[in-house]
Amino acid sequence: MSLVPFAADLPETELAAFGQDPWWVILLKAVFIFLILVLLTLFNIWFERRVVARMQHRVGPNVHGPFGLLQSLADGVKLALKEDIIPKAADKVVFLLAPIIAVVPAFITWAVIPLGPEVNFFGHRTPLQLTDMPVAVLFMLAIASIGIYGIVLGGWSSGSTYSLLGGLRSSAQMISYEVAMGLALVAVFLYAGSMSTSEIVAAQDRLWFGLILMPSFVIYVIAMIGETNRAPFDLPEAEGELVGGFHTEYSSLKFALFFLAEYINLATVSAIATTLFLGGWAAPWGIENVWEGANTGYWPLLWFFSKMFIFIFLFVWLRGSLPRMRYDQFMALGWKVLIPVSLAWTVAVATIRVISLEADNGINRSYLVAAIAVLLVLTVALMFVGEGKDDSEPVEVSQEPHDAFAGGFPVPPMPAGGAVRGAAEPLSFASGRTTVTASAEENHE
């Protein structure tokens, strides 16, 4: 007997609603999602600039349109009218295809994200979701991982060293943080008993997975920031090191496509977090008890996008607060912290799930749960053993006297080098051909 139900074993009440729509409903849904993402991108750019401006005591965009809302549209028109430059050393075919490869998967991922329940859509009863499948979450992860090839190929095809380094950094980030992200979602699959997004939302009718699976939620939030190349994990761009990273050689509409892909991915990972951990389109607690129609009609769109904007504000907040990490720190966080913790937590959740589903095991569940908690604490503690130890070899301090005017310029001794100078030792300064020697007491006078 299977201890954990799979999507194939569940009643097909949620999935049966899909695949029955006429072609015009499917087309209108697709256009609806496309328009939402484009308008959402324009708003997110304005929102980020306004929030960061407030954090830095500036005004931000406030000229074009009410409250500066049309500033993003003006920037898009400006990019479209700029000169399109292709470097001579670039592989033209790949150089042109890379932005398209980056932006198309960002749109496709939204096909399986539930935005609301069944509604009356121009006289036809249909769910507010383009489609769904038993492995919808795996579909989202697979499509999202394709988008990284656009960044890698864009950096490689530019014929620039800086762009190539940015593309290589992106591929390393994908390997590191998609592993942790995937492991964080395993606990959700175990508790929901399905990989269908609509069924995962339905499984959170009593309690959100973000609370009962808090470690998975925290790991996913960290991993989604690394996946979208956002500060403090924006190592592929790193303006101070790589000029602009993988898109250094891009201009005009091709650069705009990369920009569009970044902000759509920002909304995508926020929507996935809302769906898997915050109950999706369902109204927050208490609202449904006061208002019976909170989860009916088109009102769930309000709850869904409100939850999603919480994560978008988190992205902006982190960008305005934290400095960029070093690359070795970034890789160590992914491989030495997130992945081991994800593995330990997945094993613990699977064990607890088996205990809760197996009623006739004859073992006291409380003891097993306590043992698992102790195992988790020990696992996390062992990860940080030796963090404070300095395994490097001690630096040998040279006992030779320091030559203050070696090379003709006054050079102070290094903190760890040279003999300790006494207060009465004469100080030497060199200026051109004349050397002046004075004691410390004379200098004090």
From TrEMBL:
It catalyses: a quinone + NADH + 5 H(+)(in) = a quinol + NAD(+) + 4 H(+)(out). It is a multi-pass membrane protein. The keyword Translocase applies. It is an enzyme of class 7 (translocase). It comes from the Bacteria. The chain crosses the membrane at residues 23-47, 93-113, 133-154, 175-195, 207-226, 255-278, 298-318, 330-355, 367-385. Its EC number is 7.1.1.-. It is found in: Cell membrane; Membrane. One of its GO terms (biological process) is aerobic respiration. Residues 393-420 are annotated as: Disordered. The keyword Ligase does not apply. InterPro entries: NADH_UbQ_OxRdtase_su1/FPO, NADH_UbQ_OxRdtase_su1_CS. One of its GO terms (cellular component) is plasma membrane. GO terms for molecular function: NADH dehydrogenase activity; oxidoreductase activity, acting on NAD(P)H, quinone or similar compound as acceptor; quinone binding. PANTHER family: NADH DEHYDROGENASE SUBUNIT 1 (PTHR11432), NADH-UBIQUINONE OXIDOREDUCTASE CHAIN 1 (PTHR11432:SF3). NCBIfam families: PRK06076.1-2, PRK06076.1-4. Belongs to the complex I subunit 1 family. NDH-1 shuttles electrons from NADH, via FMN and iron-sulfur (Fe-S) centers, to quinones in the respiratory chain. The immediate electron acceptor for the enzyme in this species is believed to be ubiquinone. Couples the redox reaction to proton translocation (for every two electrons transferred, four hydrogen ions are translocated across the cytoplasmic membrane), and thus conserves the redox energy in a proton gradient. This subunit may bind ubiquinone. This is NADH-quinone oxidoreductase subunit H. The lineage of its organism: Bacteria, Bacillati, Actinomycetota, Actinomycetes, Propionibacteriales. The gene is nuoH.
